Amino acid sequence: MPRLGAKVCLLRCTLLSSLLLLLVCSIHETEQNSYCQQIITEKHLAELEELADTQMQHPGRVSFKFIDKMQLKDPVCYVKAAFPLLGNILERTEFKENSSNAKKMQMVRRMYSRIDENVDPCIREEDDEERRLSQMCFKEFTTSPYEMLVLVKQFFQDIDQLLQNQETFEKDCSQVYQRTCLGPKKAGSSPEQRRKEPAVREGRREPLIYITVASVVAVLLAMGGLLFYKYKSRVLERPLEDGGCDPEEPERRALQGARGRPELETQDL
Questions:
Q1: pLDDT reported for residue 134
Q2: How far is C-alpha 232 from the geometric centre of its chain's CA atoms?
């Protein structure tokens, strides 16, 4: 009987420990989700919109690497691949020291850092294989500063939407990257440039077509000449084979006949 009581006590202790562990994990996950959901605020997004508006009249162009959202349509993998590139963009975007824009950008950088500074990052870092494959999705964008900042704001909105839905970003995106991204490409070209590219390719094809046609015609002419030469040779050789006479003999006879007629006429006179 004492042995049975000991076993029951051990079972209860095990169940209690499991429940406590599940409770602790649940509390930690809830706290993690709450932390991540509060990082990106409406104030941050408004600051980014104001930053973009101040650059609307800026005539310059900026180049940067990022991910084409239209190509990599998986929202989780899009954020995981583009998140490190966003940090590069924020570091390179500078404004006049102590200006209002510089202070706003500093606040945005702090917001970006908070996403990763927790013990458990809100966006799980890619492993080595994921990182290697995600680099195949990188594209070179060339836009105005205004368009770049609008893209940054939209990206933070995408992150916030996923965090509000308690996305853990634990998904392995290796297969998505491998299936979707074939290699480094350029993006950001205008629709007019994309329309010109087929026309250029068509223009390159035309000389090739002309050369091909001319080559075919030359070959046909050469073959025709060879066949005509063979035919002519056979026609000239046939009389010699049939009668053994010279093919020019009829012409000589005609000339001799023409010379003999005047002499006959003279004799008659």
A1: 94
A2: 62
Between 202 and 163, the higher pLDDT residue: 163
Q: 130, 127, 132: which is closest to 184 by C-alpha?
A: 132
**Cα distances (Å, whole numbers) of residue 70 to 29, 133, 139, 182, 245:** 32, 18, 12, 15, 87
Reading the block at residue 9, the tokens are: 């006590």
Residue 203 is predicted with a pLDDT of: 53
Place of tokens 């940067």: 64
Give how far the C-alpha of residue 237 lies from the chain's centroid of Cα atoms, to the nearest Å. Answer: 69
Nearest to 134 by CA among 87, 198, 77: 77
Contact 40, 164 (CB under 8 A): no
User: How does the average pLDDT of the chain come out, rounded?
Assistant: 74
Cα 255–259–265 angle (5° rounding)? 145
82 token code pair = 């583009």
Which residues pair with residue 173 across a beta bridge? none
CB neighbour list of residue 79: distance below 8 Å, 6 or more residues apart: 123, 155, 158, 159, 162, 169
Q: Structure pTM?
A: 0.58
Instruction: Name the token pair of 8.
Output: 């029951």
| Radius of gyration, alpha carbons of the chain | 44
